[in-house]
Amino acid sequence: MKNLSKNIFLNAVVCPTLGWLLRSEQYIEGLSDKSLTLAERFRIEQGIEIENRARQLFPSGVLVEEKQMQLAAERTRALMSDPDTAVIFNGAFLSDGFSTRADVLQREGKGWQLIEIKSSANDKKEFIDDIAYTAMVMRLAGLDVQATSLILISKDYRLGMSNDKLFLEIDHTDEVLVKVAEFESVHTEIDEITRGRNKPEPVLQRECKKCPLFAECLGKGIENHILHIPRLSQSKFDSLKELGIVCIEDIPADFPLTSNQARIRDCVRTRKPFIGKQLRSSLEAVEWPAFYLDFETTMTAIPLYPDIAPYTQLPTQYSIHKYSDVGIFDDHLEYLADPSKDCRRELAENLISNLEQSGSIIIYSSFEKTVVNSLASLCPDLSGKLTALIDRMVDLEAIIRNNYYHMGFQGSTSIKRTLPTLVSEMTYDNLEIGEGSSASAAFACLALGRYDNAAAESVKRNLLVYCEQDTQAMVKLHERLYEFSHLMV
Ligand code: SF4
């Protein structure tokens, strides 16, 4: 049986069943088989770099290098009892079966200041829980935690500034103390439940929707779960739970739902898609030739180029499919930035030229509008032309949201749901880069010079293929919707 770690404890606070599953050896073995995506690997590497840089803020710090928890805890104890050690990195604590590691411990009188490092530019509620768990385990180990704080990324940092300008420290002592008291009141119970022989009976809650084990737990065998209903309020969720209803098809006709929610229930009940009366006219509003547009962006904690704030979303490439009418291909245009420099202006100029003067620009979601707006702010002299592009945009997702529903969407109109449902022959499975976050990570790795020449060329090709596939997917979705709209009399 594993020690109770931070991850298990914090999950168990939300759901004891999840905590129990995460603590069970069987489940952990299953998880270790999962290989990381490029995006996940990049996120981890970025986190390590931020942590290493943050440690430079404490030149006298001593790192606890031991990986094995027992050894690491012994080493931490030895360092803490040495008055000459003022700062400890990655200190380990094992107490009553609870384990944790502290990013930074700074001696303060007879006690310690606990500092957690996060590679985020925004303070978040979950960070308080995170520090509070470590503070609780330290207190269980008999230590005096005098203060707690967070080190975050400063949005004021720019490339070339000294390392200390990359960070911002925020004191959270008061909030953490409140949370520690809360955790201390339940820690024994959570330990007992999660180490028990029997899995706690799962209890449906709205948090289940985001649970990584939902499909194997309460979602198992239920094709149309009530959690698939978008924007289901807590009170409606509670009412359905009280009625013992977990399948959408069992929701009574007189149960109060919004029109969108009722449409989803009716589609599930009849097992027929909904085709709205406005579908045809919405599609007919498209002016030809039309340009299907998709951007890719990248975003890093440490800016890739000068004069850019941390976590600025940088457009790096686009794909355009030009069609002269539904199903009549005209041209494919694309752009991929030179990763060695900030190419946003060049991208904006090419975009204006490629999208010509007229014709609808078909997008999926409001993301493309946000990107073009950011380019307009960056290049005021181009803002008139860029804003004119926004005026020509037709959002295919909005057309679907208002006029079409298929139960395969499972309550979502994101392209991840609509494409496999409506264009099942189109897949990203055989692509080297098959999702946006990996495209973002791949570009960042190119900019950071992490590939040799041959590998860099291959990554660039894969990026172009991926972005082209995105606009091709929009073309296919549009064609399918067009067919549906002509089925209507
Ligand atoms: S699906 Fe719900 S009940 Fe099951 S483990 Fe996840 S959060 Fe817990």
Question: Descriptors for this entry?
Answer:
globular, binds iron/sulfur cluster, alpha/beta, 18 helices, 489 residues, 6-stranded mixed β-sheet, 3 domains
Characterization of this structure:
This protein has 18 helices and 13 strands. Strand 1, helix 5 and strand 2 form a beta-alpha-beta unit. The strands form 3 sheets. The chain has a 6-stranded mixed beta sheet. The protein has a 5-stranded mixed beta sheet with strand order 10-9-8-11-12, sandwiched between helices. Strands 7-13 form a two-stranded antiparallel ribbon. It has 489 residues and is α/β, with parallel strands linked by helices. Helix 2 packs across helix 8 and helix 6 crosses helix 7. The model has no long low-confidence stretch (mean pLDDT 95). It has 3 domains: 190 residues, Alpha-Beta Complex (Lambda Exonuclease, Chain A); 51 residues; 209 residues, 2-Layer Sandwich (Nucleotidyltransferase, domain 5), CATH 3.30.420.10. The chain binds iron/sulfur cluster. The site of iron/sulfur cluster has 12 residues, from helix 2.
